[in-house]
Amino acid sequence: MTIIELAQAKHAAPILATGPHTLHLMQPHERPRWDAFVRTCPDATFFHLSGWQKVIEESFGIKTWFYYVQQDGQIQGVLPLAQIKSRLFGHSLGAMPFCVYGGVAALTDTARAMLDGAAHALAQELGVGHLEYRGMRRAHPDDPEWQTKELYVTFRKPISGDDEENMTAIPRKQRAMVRKAIKLGLVGEVDDNVDRMFDAYATSVHRLGTPVFPKKYFALLQQVFGDECEVRTITTATGELVASVLSFYWRDEVVPYYGGGTALAREVAGNDFMYWNLMQAASARGCRLFDFGRSKLGTGAYDFKKNWGFTAQSLPYEYKLYRATALPDNNPLNPKYQLFIRMWKRLPLPVANALGPYIVRNLG
């Protein structure tokens, strides 16, 4: 379903329902009907799909609650939640960790209020420090109990079905980098496993001083989401690994989500070619929106995406405090983590890859 069709559906005449709204926790056999709702709900994102429950619980051992509200047997709203409890990074309930978008996706105000109420009750029951929603827009702009802060932005831009139009839309300097990589004969291939992607990704995040996700996590993403999860790897003409990206396909959008490059990538404009190659493939597949994903303000990733001609769109994540007295600040820009980052960069890569999954599961 395209963005236009979803917008039309949102404003279509509603089917008259007379029964009460009721709150439920999704059971394994209900995943198909959950996903059927998510795929047609205008507020929903790829990160509302039921497959995230399996991925997060099996990859990280994290407890999840997938709430939904129904009326007359029809789902009216959903809210996936997960708990992170860490001595180092705090105790939180969020929608959803490891996902850039989240929060309530609902068709009615009643369903939305009931799901908010379920999250509030669960947060109190668990004794968390805070509750977090990761929406693309504020869900509670007039409620003083919900706070937000400026940290993340996303970059989303329409693409066409014509490669030349998409190339021309890239600013001149960035376009030159893409053409350089094309002349060097780089090649894009789709992998049926995550081996090369993990090698490129792990090398890249180690250079940044960031703990790596477990390889099992990426394999589960590919397994659970099937054709909607693609691993695209870039090599030289002789087959040398340059870069790789794991992307999600959702409605008429493509979302490059995890990626990285080897030391060779900078020399041959590998990352530039990787995103261009993905844009070409997504355009041919019928995608008309390229979601470059979340970045923190003031980072190299933020600048890189701006260089492609994308405009930053604020992500006003919302926080409701319970036992915490201040908003969370678990990100690499926090000065208190700088020593850790410098030390992490010095670790041998195999050691960092072994230790990283034990740390990153607590970050979300």
From TrEMBL:
Coiled coil: none annotated. It comes from the Bacteria. SUPFAM superfamilies: Acyl-CoA N-acyltransferases (Nat) (SSF55729). InterPro entries: Acyl_CoA_acyltransferase, BioF2-like_GNAT_dom, PEP-CTERM_FemAB-rel, PG_Glycine_Bridge_Synth. Residues 173-306 form the BioF2-like acetyltransferase domain. Pfam families: Acetyltransf_6. PANTHER family: LIPID II:GLYCINE GLYCYLTRANSFERASE. This is FemAB family PEP-CTERM system-associated protein. It comes from Massilia solisilvae.
